[in-house]
Amino acid sequence: MTIQAAFQVQRKNFQLDVDFTLPATGVTALFGPSGCGKTTLLRAIAGLEQCKGRFWLGQQCWQDETLFVPTYKRRLGYVFQEASLFPHLSVQKNLEYGWRRLPQAQRREDKDQLIDWLGLTPLLQQGGEQLSGGQRQRVAIGRALLTSPELLLLDEPLSALDNGAKQEIMPLLEHLSEQAKVPIFYVTHAPIEVERLANRVLLMDKGRIIHNDSLQQALARPNTPLYRYEQVAGIIEGRITESLADGRLPFDSEAGRLWLAGNNPAGAGPARVRILASDVSIALAPVANISIVNQLPAKVLSITPAATGSVLLRLTLAGGQQIPAQLSAYSVSQLNLTEGSHCYALIKAAALLS
Ligand SMILES: Nc1ncnc2c1ncn2[C@@H]1O[C@H](COP(=O)(O)OP(=O)(O)OP(=O)(O)O)[C@@H](O)[C@H]1O
């Protein structure tokens, strides 16, 4: 199933002109500089912009040359930067607002379970205006999910929150991105949110989509705001299990097992690790008697000159996931590395992201 969309929005000093097709699963980040049209695109998807275009969610058409389904008839959940709750209604009534209007047969969520998961049970009788920013955003997420949407639109849901509240909401978003049965569009300015949550990235600039990438492709693409020269990073997706008594934390992926340091407060489950290019060295064979325990077989996909004297390698690991490695030009020539070379990625540090 795919999402197919094309929109043209004409404003005085701005034009949105996009045309894209995506798999209708997982989280697609809309990423790009301020004013590039991320919110406008989200609003067009929601039917909040009267504009030319088309939008298909699988077999459902929400807009084309002859049809325009109004927003209230589109099965979507929309979470904004700042949660706009009904101040005169309790948390419970806010949560149930859309849910009550939904025919029983269409209610997919277990309401009590969802409220419990969001940690909102103790707040149910409070008024919407008495909540902190993080609590309000949790209610907004709950309210959207309770309408059993077929598409979820999240517009910078963390950007208005302080650091504490961000830490509180991020694990919920991570869980949502792993478990959600519906596609999610997620607007953000923050590379770390893309790394933690996205499966795909629509990279936008000046009202256009300049790249429609998988997460791996997006992170590997130089000259974009996602790509930070001083800390080029890759993501490996896998599964975390309980820490061992000696403090090591096993992380299993198609690329093999990585050993991480530290605790795993979240327990076993799907997770991502972030690996900085500067934390990856290369050997032509496994190395014994060395402190680096993470040594994964890899193949060199590309070799690109980076900052003065250094070279960036893109490596493919078993199973196809990719990570970058930063080496000196001297090391690349000493090891005689070329595109297609088989080697071992020696990973000094990997940070658990979820
Ligand atoms: N209601 C409006 N009327 C006229 N111009 C608007 C309106 N809303 C947004 N714009 C303009 O349209 C362009 C795209 O805005 P949009 O909010 O979609 O960008 P964005 O990428 O989401 O930005 P940000 O990351 O800052 O939220 C900007 O130039 C903005 O000034």
UniProtKB/TrEMBL annotation:
Residues 1-231 form the ABC transporter domain. Keywords: ATP-binding, Cell inner membrane, Cell membrane, Membrane, Molybdenum, Nucleotide-binding, Translocase, Transport. InterPro entries: AAA+_ATPase, ABC_transporter-like_ATP-bd, ABC_transporter-like_CS, Mo/tungstate-bd_C_term_dom, ModC_ABC_ATP-bd, Molybdenum_import_ModC, Mop_domain, P-loop_NTPase. Residues 289-354 form the Mop domain. One of its GO terms (molecular function) is ATP binding. PROSITE patterns: ABC_TRANSPORTER_1, ABC_TRANSPORTER_2, MOP. It comes from the Bacteria. PANTHER family: ABC TRANSPORTER I FAMILY MEMBER 10. This is Molybdenum ABC transporter ATP-binding protein. It comes from Oceanisphaera pacifica. The lineage of its organism: Bacteria, Pseudomonadati, Pseudomonadota, Gammaproteobacteria, Aeromonadales.
